[in-house]
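Pilot study result, target chain (131 residues):
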Amino acid sequence: MGAVLLDTTVVIDVLNGRRTSVQRLDALERIGDTPYICAITVEEVTNGLHPREREDATHLLEGLAIAPLGMEEGRIAGWWRRNLRRKGQTIAQADALIAAAAFQLGAPLATGNPKDFPMKEVTVQHWPAGQ
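Predicted structure:
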């Protein structure tokens, strides 16, 4: 049994009833893996909600485990952004923090945008967006 951190793209696809993403989430739970999200994903999902979507989103988000975002995750994210910027690659603060949460959990990161997570230390699972 393990953990998998879900990126915002995956959560949005599940909320939109995208069959493949819903099936993959169900499969995680059937095999005993724990799906996690972090506060960044909660904020990103909540920010994009229409009022009619709030109840379903709240139900889904509250049913997932929460990965901590604290001092150490902030340091890791900062170092990754700094080191990647020195190599000419810019990544979003939110993506760096999501990746740091996955790294600290020791969990793979499920995302529809694997290019947003170039950190070698993080195992990325590509859950193609819109499916």
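One observation from the pilot: Residues 14 and 22 are 5 Å apart (CA to CA). A full batch analysis is planned for the follow-on phase.
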